[in-house]
Design brief:
With 281 residues, the chain is an alpha/beta fold. The chain has one domain: Alpha/Beta hydrolase fold, catalytic domain (Rossmann fold, 3-Layer(aba) Sandwich), CATH 3.40.50. It has eight helices and nine strands. The protein has a nine-stranded mixed beta sheet with strand order 1-2-3-5-4-6-7-8-9, with helices on both faces. β1 and β2 form a beta hairpin. α2 crosses α3. The longest helix has 16 residues. The radius of gyration is 18 Å and the shape is globular. One of its GO terms (biological process) is proteolysis. Belongs to the AB hydrolase superfamily. This is Peptidase S9.
């Protein structure tokens, strides 16, 4: 919250695909001292078009390729007339490396999303409408989205999250790091750096977006399935209830029997997402 963000220098590179309704490009932009890669789908026509910045869920950086993640959303939303900028994040694909990112609880991803929006807003590309920018995050990217809303209120016009991680950092740390034998070394590094949640609860409160939900100013749409065994729906209920109690503009769509991948009811969810962004952007 205290640091300055200066994202910019959005560069459009090679054409990756001509999909008819839109063209897919390689892009890079500046995030602090790093260059971050991604893709951008630009609809056919003159524009300017509203822009959606997409924050993907966890994919092992060792196998990740540029633009991988949220493929259905990238395609659908571009066909509805939105420019879609999908950030790779640092340490992914063609982005620069940040060796401290894991120990820093991946907060660098939040920096990269904030800077992606700033890069859009300050871009001179005439087909980008920098006054109409939305944010969509899935799973881990849902947490990145929640972080963004509390770190930089007013940065975007509206946000959508799918099957998000918890808004309480302790629940995420316990589920995927402290209780995972393969992550024991990382867990020890994090505890050495900041203290365990039970020993330094103030630190862990201060890296949890739920602590700062009073700062949220944007309307938020949440999608979550009742059968999600990756991110339990109880987390979504807790996030929704915390926002609702503060009088925030939050809509919570529950999908009975839907799992983390959102397959059977994805079409319903994306049509609701489109309508939400149409209303607010």
């Amino acid at each position: 919250m205290e640091q300055e963000f200066d994202g910019g220098d959005l560069q459009v590179g090679e054409v990756l695909e001509d999909a008819g309704a839109y063209t897919r490009y390689e892009v890079t932009y500046r995030s602090g001292d790093l260059t971050v890669s991604g893709i951008m789908n630009v609809p056919e026509g003159a524009g300017p078009f509203p822009v959606l910045v997409l924050a993907h869920g966890y994919i092992d950086p060792e196998i990740y390729t540029t633009g991988r993640g949220l493929a259905r959303e990238q395609d659908y939303l571009a066909r509805q007339g939105y420019v879609v900028l999908h950030t790779d994040y640092r340490n992914h694909a063609g982005s620069d490396d940040d060796p401290e990112n894991e120990v820093r609880l991946r907060l660098g991803y939040t920096e990269d999303v904030i800077n992606a929006v700033l890069a859009v807003r300050e871009s001179s590309l005439d087909y980008l409408d920098g006054e109409r920018v939305g944010l969509l995050g899935r799973s881990m990217g849902g947490g990145v989205t929640l972080n963004t809303l509390v770190v930089r209120p007013g940065l975007v016009n509206a946000a959508v999250i799918y099957a998000s991680v918890s808004s309480d950092a302790v629940e995420n740390f316990d589920r995927w790091t402290r209780n995972d034998p393969e992550s024991s070394e990382l867990a020890d590094e994090i505890i050495d750096a900041y203290g365990a949640p039970e020993d330094d609860p103030e630190f862990w409160r201060n890296v949890s977006p739920v602590t700062f939900f009073d700062r949220v100013t944007e309307p938020l749409l949440m999608h979550h399935g009742t059968a999600d065994d990756t991110c339990p729906i109880e987390w979504a209920h807790d996030t929704h209830d915390a926002l609702d109690e503060l009088g925030k503009d939050v809509t919570f769509e529950v999908y009975e029997g839907e799992q983390h991948a959102f397959v059977p009811q994805w079409q319903d969810s994306i049509e609701r997402t489109e309508a939400f962004f149409d209303e607010h952007l």
